[in-house]
Amino acid sequence: MSTPIDTLRYVWEAFFPAHQTPGQRAYNTAMLVLFALTAAALVWMAIRTGRRQREVRRTLMEAAPVSAEEFLENWRIGRRGSGLGYGATDEAGCYVILTNPVYDGSGDVSYEAVYVGQSIHVAQRVMAHLTGHGNGDVYADVRAGKPVEVRMVRCAPADLNATERSLIAAFDATRSYNRTRGGSKAR
User: Fold this and answer.
1) CB 76 within 8 A of CB 87
2) What is the 3-state composition of the chain as percent helix, strand, coil, each rounded to the nearest 5?
3) Contact yes or no for 154/92 (Cβ under 8 A)
4) Helices (H), the chain
5) What is the pTM of this model?
């Protein structure tokens, strides 16, 4: 069985054999540096993506939760432009629909199922899901009387894809009702 030191020695000798020409040594050194830079860039991107996911999830969880029943009741309590009701204040954004949300004392949430989406008209899209014109699994949960919670976050249309992808990753939504990692539409 080889130790990590033996493995490193083997890799070093593979890149820098004992008898190399100066050209071979320069090429191998350049390849080793390129490999190290690529590895560093991948680590940096993973850290940055993780931070983005945590930030987006935190922002969304700070938004006021709305039950499916409350959302449907408040859909149209005023005319468009009046600023009343979800239908009258429709904007671009992303949303998360949680089924059976349970909050612990620290503010973390666990849930039975989750669906994440985006829309230029986010409230209309949420309404479609809750009334059977969107994700069938979400509608089945609403119809079955399960506790369903909606959270929406406004964002610029240019940021919809990135925000949706971050939310899907942050909520691990591809293990639930989302079929893709999101952001498939060109905006």
Assistant:
1) yes
2) 50, 15, 35
3) yes
4) 4-15, 22-62, 68-73, 122-130, 136-143, 160-170
5) 0.68
Do residues 73 and 127 make contact, with C-beta atoms less than 8 angstroms apart?
A: no
Judged by DSSP in three states, 139 sits in helix
Amino acid residing at 7? T
CA 129 to chain centre: 19
- The mean pLDDT value for 130-141 works out to 94
DSSP of 21-41: -HHHHHHHHHHHHHHHHHHHH
Alpha-carbon span 33 to 37, nearest angstrom: 6
pLDDT tens sequence across 7-28: 878 877 777 777 778 888 888 8
Spatial contact of 141 and 80, defined as CB atoms under 8 Å apart:
no
Three-state SS for 60? Answer: helix
CB count, 10 Å around CB of 72? 17
